[in-house]
Write a structure and sequence with these properties.
single chain; alpha+beta; VC0802-like; seven-stranded antiparallel β-sheet; 4 helices; 28% helix; ACT domain-containing protein; ACT-like_dom_sf
Length: 134
């Protein structure tokens, strides 16, 4: 299946999927990630390596964090050069007062939203898809 670029099709086929568990953002100096971590996202920054890991992994490794998130995957296969998807999703969530950290994977976009508002975020995304679909 080829990646979608058309914004209306992308929005109409979001199919948000909530992953079980709590996820946290933490940072470690480059090359010093504790063994046994299972990061779902890594980002190399000048200040160190950002890791998004299950909260239990961070707690076991005694890593500090401030933000506990839920992980939502948009199951639509979005092209990396598609225009407007991130903006439309972020706007829908921002209008409801929800923060959203977006990570683009090769096939899908992944959203990290406040854990306690995960169900609300999924419902908002489903409504966005319903309004945008055929």
């Amino acid at each position: 299946m080829s990646a979608e670029r058309d914004l209306a099709r992308l929005l109409g086929d979001l199919r948000p999927a909530l992953h079980p568990g709590r996820y946290v953002f933490t940072t470690v100096p480059a090359g010093t990630a504790p063994p046994g971590l299972a990061p779902v996202v890594t980002v190399a920054e000048d200040e160190g390596l950002t890791l998004v890991v299950p909260q239990g992994n961070a707690d076991a490794a005694r890593l500090s964090y401030d933000y506990v998130a839920a992980w939502i995957t948009l199951r639509v296969h979005s092209a990396l050069d598609a225009v407007g998807l991130t903006a439309a999703v972020a706007r829908a969530l921002a209008d409801a007062g929800l923060s959203c950290n977006v990570v683009a994977g090769f096939h899908h976009d992944h959203l990290f939203v406040p854990y306690e508002r995960a169900a609300e975020a999924v419902a908002l995304l489903e409504r966005l898809a319903d309004r945008s679909g055929p």
